[in-house]
Write a structure and sequence with these properties.
This protein has about 150 residues and is of the alpha+beta class. A four-stranded antiparallel β-sheet has the order 1-2-4-3. A hairpin with a 4-residue loop joins β3 and β4 (about 140-150). About 50% of the residues lie in helices and about 25% in strands. The radius of gyration is 16 Å and the shape is globular. It has six helices and four strands; from the N terminus they run ααααββααββ. α3 (about 40-55) packs across α6. It has helices at about 1-15, 20-35, 40-55, 60-70, 95-100, 110-120; strands at about 75-80, 85-90, 125-135, 140-150.
């Protein structure tokens, strides 16, 4: 299994210098995936994000922020962190464009990814949801956890 993860990481390193046109990215994300998944798209994307997080475990918020940049998901920043939750925000030219064009973007993939990463890092069950912030042209992620609902070490 470790060899498989190493191959994936090497493959990602080899493609770091490549760029993908926004049209191709949006075609897959906004047209093809919803066409295939139908009305279940948000739920499936949330769980797919959690699955991705398990495949690419990150040990710190700095690594999560870097992952978002490298994946082309946008610039992620922590807005605030409290005892039972945190708020994060992503911005990108694609997000701004979606909001300006008033298209319904789905950010459940990112929400699921964040929920799983924070759950793994904090060892406490975590859920996430997103809010569109039209004024700031960003997506806000609200993560919540219950310190009494800890995850056993695996």
């Amino acid at each position: 299994m470790r060899a498989s993860l190493q191959l994936e990481e090497e493959s990602m390193e080899n493609t770091e210098q490549l760029t993908i046109p926004a049209f191709g990215y949006e075609l897959m994300r906004e047209v093809l995936i919803p066409e295939i998944l139908g009305k279940e798209t948000p739920e499936i994307l949330y769980w797919a994000g959690k699955h991705l997080a398990r495949k690419f475990p990150l040990v710190s918020m700095d690594e999560v922020i870097s992952f978002f940049e490298e994946a082309g998901w946008g610039h992620l920043k922590v807005i605030k962190e409290e005892k039972h939750g945190m708020e994060l925000e992503i911005t990108s030219p694609l997000i701004s464009r979606h909001l300006q064009l008033k298209t319904d973007g789905c950010y459940k993939l990112e929400a699921g990814f964040l929920a799983e990463q924070i759950q793994t890092q904090k060892k406490v069950r975590t859920e996430a949801y997103e809010e569109v912030m039209k004024k700031t042209q960003s997506i806000r992620f609200i993560l919540r956890w219950d310190l009494k609902d800890s995850i056993p070490n695996s």
